[in-house]
């Protein structure tokens, strides 16, 4: 008998052909582009029935954006606004993820903290504005604090729900093999937690974008908030909708970047 034939037979993994990749891209890109085009058409349709001073058309908004970006005014204001958004979101993640994990994995902590978290979460975030003004003033620190408040409870609740749904049997399996607490956390709990941690990141990022513009409208009007207030005083709906449009694109970009990171980190979890 030939010795080579008695060895293990290597089975080549199927390669993705160019046609398969193109089909998958088409399946994703066409509906995505169709959604954007449909949204713009609906926007144009609604604008055709309203005066331009009330609701600007996409063409007018695009024209305003070209001028605002050419002058550099809108990008500079946007860059300044993003600063307190990023800081507030990072603080919310630093607090929300550990608290959510503790609540999710400890019944005692869950029963102690869940009523408080749920009660505070039910309060509209803008109701905290007067308190934040007293505690932090009306400038950068207050804006960071409002972003934090608007994002942290969503993160806590998402992480808690995910941590509580981790299968107990995988924890028991790790313990039965003699895994220490540290090893169980790093090799079992953390990988099992990644899907809902990414979900918490997506929710927290969008809530932070909401908090970014809300803070600039409710506290001292600066950056994008000042831009919108000046446009409102001049009845310039194109300028106001330009900011709204940029915020929508910014939120969409953040979501797509997180989804891309999720496909790289969790290919077994993300549906193709």
Automatic annotation (TrEMBL):
What is the protein's major site of localization? membrane
**Record's keyword annotation contains NAD:** no
Cellular location of this protein? Cell membrane
Which UniProt keywords are present, listed alphabetically? Cell membrane, Membrane, Transmembrane, Transmembrane helix, Transport
Q: Which Pfam families match?
A: BPD_transp_1
Leader sequence segment: none
Q: Which residues cross the membrane?
A: 29-50, 85-104, 116-138, 144-163, 184-205, 233-254
Report the family membership. Answer: Belongs to the binding-protein-dependent transport system permease family.
| Protein name, per record | ABC transporter permease
**The species this protein was found in:** Roseibium sediminicola
